[in-house]
Amino acid sequence: MEKRSAEQEKFATIASLGALLKPQSIAVIGASRKQGSIGNKLFHNILHQEFKGVVYPVNPNAEVVASVKAYPSILDIPGEVELAVVIVPAETVHQVVEQCGQKGVRGVVVISAGFGESGAEGMDRQERLLETARGYGMRLVGPNCMGIISTDPEVNMNATFSPVFPPAGNIALGTQSGALGLAILEYAQSLNIGLSTFVSIGNRVMYPAMTCYSTGRKTRLLTSSSFTLNLSAIRESLLE
Asked: Cα–Cα–Cα angle for 140, 36, 153, nearest 5°?
């Protein structure tokens, strides 16, 4: 009975991660027209990489972002939204995530900082955020993270503020540190090391540890927190 329960939990987890790793629609809440801003970079990266689904910019102060019609809130978007990427001030994140739940969003990536890493007030804000996400059954990555990349040709998603999109491969990389994540992406690209998925978990409120579940493909999971991965050695091992 316990074994069956564990298997059921495993398959349920795999299914729920689909909204994060293989979404068919994305809302970027905080997509910006301001050059150099995180909201501008991330939205541009999704478009530039030719994401295979639909992407909606959400910005109450703009009618259009990067030639794409913008919406005042996620609740104003006419179609379904599977994944929401949130890039708004910390004090408004909870309201936005609440609206995501009302919309029926399945996965949320909170890029915004100002949570558990910033003191007692931020920790209270973070706990409230997690409670809301769980209440609506949403998967949450972050807060205080840099986003998600999927090189699956059926997805082509660069929902990060990094301009680096690594070649496709069989390594799934999870990192807590955004700065280290950026460095690893650049290093992997220079060594031509292919990645299947890159996830920056930030404060990792819903994913205290990274777990790799087999989905039928040979995927190796690498995780990093405060240590540096030796990608040269990894490359050699993959060639063996």
From this structure: 55
Looking at domain 2-239, what is its CATH homologous superfamily? NAD(P)-binding Rossmann-like Domain (3.40.50.720)
Highest mean pLDDT among 92-96, 188-192, 197-201: 92-96
pLDDT in tens, 69-86: 999 999 999 999 999 999
Domain positions in the chain are 2-239
Q: CB count, 10 Å around CB of 236? A: 10
Alpha helices in the chain (DSSP H): 2-21, 38-48, 90-103, 120-135, 178-190, 231-239
- DSSP class of residue 61 equals T
Helix (H, G, I), strand (E, B) or coil at 52: coil
